[in-house]
Amino acid sequence: MKIRFFTVVLFSASVCGCATVQYGSRDVEADLHRLQPVAGKASLYVCRESAAFVGAGNRTTAFVDNKSIGTLKPGNFAHTVVEPGSHDIHIDRSPGGKSGTLTIDTKANDVPIVWVGVTGHGWGVLTVDEFEDRAEAERCVQAAKYALPTE
C-alpha cells in the first residue's frame, strides 16, 4: 500500500510540478513578437513550444551564458539582447536536471531563435536545439507568452 501511495505522489509531482512563471508586459510582448533586430546586437529568443501534459508543470529556466533569462512553461518564450559572438544556452528543469549546452555564434542585427524542451512528448531528454526551419521558430515565438526570470 505504501509503495502504491508513493508511486501516485511521485507521478503527480512529475505531471503537475510547481512551476511559477512571471510574465512580461503585453506591450513588450507585442513588440517582441515582431522579431525585430537590435542595431549592432543580437536579439536572442529561447522558445518552449506547447507540449504534452507530462512535465508541463515543471519549472524550466533558460540560461544564456549562465545568466537566467526566463522561466518557461510550454507555450512561453524568453528574450535577451547579447553582443555579437559565441553564446552558450542551456536549461535547468526542476525536477529534471540540466540540459546539455548549445553554443551559437551570433552576428550584429541577428535574431536567432532557439528551441528548448523535453523530447519524447515530455518523457524524453531535456534539450536545447535549433529549430528545423525559420518559419517554425517564428511561429513558436509569435504564439507564445513572454516569460521573465523568476527567483
Short description:
It is built from three helices and eleven strands. With 151 residues, the protein is an alpha+beta fold. The chain is globular and about 40 Å long.
Could you please describe the fold and organization of this structure?
The chain is α+β, with helices and mostly antiparallel strands. It has one domain. The protein has 3 helices and 11 strands; from the N terminus they run H-E-H-E-E-E-E-E-E-E-E-E-H-E.
Report how far the terminal alpha carbons are from each other: 37 Å
How many H/I helical runs? 3
Number of structurally distinct domains: 1
- The string of secondary-structure elements, in order, is HEHEEEEEEEEEHE
What is the percentage of strand-forming residues?
35-45%
Strand-helix topology:
Elements: H1 2-16, E1 22-23, H2 26-32, E2 42-48, E3 59-64, E4 67-72, E5 76-82, E6 85-94, E7 97-98, E8 102-106, E9 113-118, E10 126-130, H3 134-143, E11 145-148
Parallel strand pairs: 2-9, 5-11
Antiparallel strand pairs: 1-11, 2-5, 3-4, 3-6, 6-7, 6-8, 9-10
Descriptive keywords:
151 residues, alpha+beta, 5-stranded antiparallel beta sheet, 11 strands, 21% helix, disordered N terminus
